[in-house]
């Protein structure tokens, strides 16, 4: 498994720093990953769904520490690159979204902020 694309969508909030979309092997995308500045440092919050009882359940996540570390390193490296280029321009994605004939192409639009 290889990360073949990362899109960073910076936000201007106290703890939430960015939304992230990651493409694996040019054929599978995971969206709604969040970069959070927590009390003990920066971490990734994987996409989750609210259950009926009010708790949250991850819908996609690494199955082992090595994969989590691989993802964190790749995402944080791209985040730092984007923030360094961004300067005072304000939040924007790392690249322009692709134009596609398929309207529901995953990763073409910034992730929704519902449930955040």
What does this structure look like?
With 116 residues, the chain is of the alpha+beta class. It has a single domain, classed as 2-Layer Sandwich (Arylsulfatase, C-terminal domain). Helices cover 19% and strands 34% of the residues. It contains one helix and six strands, in the order ββββββα. A four-stranded antiparallel beta sheet has the order 1-2-3-4, covered by helices on one side. A two-stranded antiparallel sheet has the order 5-6. The two termini are 29 Å apart. The relative contact order is 0.22.
Can you describe this structure in just a few lines?
This protein has 116 residues and is of the alpha+beta class.
Write the layout of secondary structure elements.
Elements: E1 3-10, E2 16-24, E3 28-38, E4 41-45, E5 48-50, E6 56-58, H1 65-86
Antiparallel strand pairs: 1-2, 2-3, 3-4, 5-6
Kindly name the structural category: alpha+beta
Number of helices: 1
Named CATH architecture: 2-Layer Sandwich
Task: Identify the strand order in the major beta sheet.
Answer: 1-2-3-4
What percentage of amino acids are in beta strands?
A: 25-35%
Provide the gyration radius in Å.
Answer: 14 Å
Number of separate structural domains? 1
Q: Averaging pLDDT over every residue, what do you get?
A: 82
Name the CATH class.
Alpha Beta
- Name of the CATH homologous superfamily: Stage V sporulation protein G
Task: Name the quaternary structure.
Answer: single chain
Helix proportion: 10-25%
Low-confidence stretches: 91-116
What is the number of E strands?
6
What sequence of helices (H) and strands (E) makes up the elements? EEEEEEH
For the biggest sheet, the summary is: 4 strands, antiparallel
Find the CATH topology: Arylsulfatase, C-terminal domain
The separation of the N and C termini measures 29 Å
